Amino acid sequence: MLAVGAELEADTPLYLVTFCAVDLETTGGSPRAAAITEVGAVKYRGGERVGSFHTLVEPGVHIPRFITYLTGLGDAVVDGAPRIEAVLPSLLEFLSGSVFVAHNARFDFRFLNEALRQAGHDPLPPPPVCTARLARRVVGPDVPNVRLETLAQYFRTAVRPAHRALPDAEACAGVLHGLLELGGRLGILTLGDLHASVRARGQPHHQKVRLADHLPHSPGVYLFRGREGRILYVGKATDLRHRVKSYFYGDQRRSIAHLLARTVSVEGRPCRGELEALVLEARLIARHQPPHNRRGKTWRRYAYLRVDLAEAWARIKVVRRAQGRGAFLGPFPDAATAHRAQEALEDLFPIRRCTRAMGPSTRFSPCVLAGLGRCLAPCRGRVEPERYEELVRTLVLSLSSPGGLLEALERRMAQLAEAERFEEAALARDRLRALAEALARARTDVWLLAPGRLELRGRDGQWVELVGGSLAVGEGPPGEFPCPRHRADEVAAVRSWVARNRPTMIGADCPPAEPVDGGAELARLLPILRGADRLPT
Which residues pair with 338 in a beta bridge? Predict the structure, then answer.
């Protein structure tokens, strides 16, 4: 037997959809504590009635007096009627291949699924169509409320609700057809449009929903444009038309209301798959900096660590651009994260931290770190340049082969925790995490951003070609290492896709490679640091 709506695709036109309006009368409001006393259903296709289903049901429990007063159904009326277990097979056959519709559908849908569960049947698949929620989208401002009686009067349905299952189902069907007729003028033309409009929240913006009519049902990137073609927002979707229409069906966010008020057109750019959409979205945001995209300017917050080899006595700096002579690590999401990684390195390497410019023979009074033995203090002339240069070389080497570095930092964190210096241990953990995540990203970026061509095939069969870390589609920037700030989001999208899909390498001009040292430590540490709710002991 076909499940309800199982054979229908999202792009099925509504005139080809079979709708089944259902109404249940029950002994109470809880599906687990109450029982069904009457079932009514009526089926329509293309506006024509194709069948009806009606039966009383013996609930197996006493019907409360107020229910009898409301519906006219008492114990004597349902005496001798079949139990719900006997009704369900016929009802499921009647519902087969149709879309479940009800007024305040959550009530009827939950009651019926609970009865199915207790009888050992599979539940009906969601989502149902709720005429009350649809009415809020379509005629909300024009009616005082969305009660079934009010809507039946508004649409002048042939049957008015009477707190009985079959007439209420027939009234619900009449209301549905009235709503679909109005909704068609507002862009609700397919089953996917209908479900999207029912799920939407807030006040609708139907007056502009036609802007999405030309978009395809395919993955890609969409652009909201304002006057003079200015790009206001860029997003990605697995189904362009459905995603864009969802904005106009209603959204409670104030920022979306402002966006829609300024939108005069919507452009869609289909893509072959998820990665192409991710990359294209990142490129467009970086290039146009749309005012309604949070990421439009966030790339400016990215920062790097630079071991500045241009100075006579090298030190670690947090910089905004990967320029100049030195060794780099990053980009970090912001300067604060970069500073945490810097502090982790400076905890292990007694490199100078002062910001004062120094030549080979510059001398001045040392800071307190020199007295604590945490800086070699070239400022007082007691360290040879060769020894200091050896320390710097060891530091730079540890960025590519960080096994010993990570072990030492983890050991330091554990010692602080064992000494019950928990605040210091938490700080050491945060510093270690910032450094470890940057080192892990750098390992991928080294081969991802290498010059030449790299062909990959994901587990889903998607084939991609990268040139210098850029997707070989459209106009991509050349690869650079470390990744510049304006490309960080694009490279992060590629890196994330690689991590999720674990693709197979088909071909490469420069085969990917990375140092063995540190790989096991990173693979072990990162899940612990990312998921730690408390300090290790």
Answer: none
Structure tokens of 58? 């013996």
Beta 326-332 vs 303-308: how paired, if at all? antiparallel
Q: How confident is the model at residue 10 (pLDDT cuts 50, 70, 90)?
A: confident
Strands annotated E in 191-230: 220-225
Q: In terms of DSSP H, where are the helices of 313-384?
A: 335-348, 368-371
Residue 273's CATH number = 3.40.1440.10
Among candidates 98, 113, 108, 111, which has minimal Cα distance to 33?
111
Extract long-range pairs of 51-54: CB within 8 Å, 24+ residues apart.
Answer: 51/94, 52/166, 52/170, 53/90, 53/91, 53/94, 54/165, 54/166
- Determine the Cα–Cα distance for residues 399 and 440; give it in Å rounded to an integer: 10
pTM of the model: 0.57
pLDDT beyond 70 at 251? no
Residue 260 confidence (pLDDT)? 82
**Residue whose token pair is 């969601």:** 126
Residues 281, 260: Cα–Cα separation, whole Å: 19
Which residue, 349, 368, 400, sits at the end of a domain? 400
DSSP 3: P
The beta strands (E) that lie in 27-131 are given as 36-45, 48-56, 99-102, 129-130
Q: Smallest Cα–Cα separation from 42: which of 174, 190, 189?
A: 174
Task: Please give the tally of structural domains in the chain.
Answer: 4
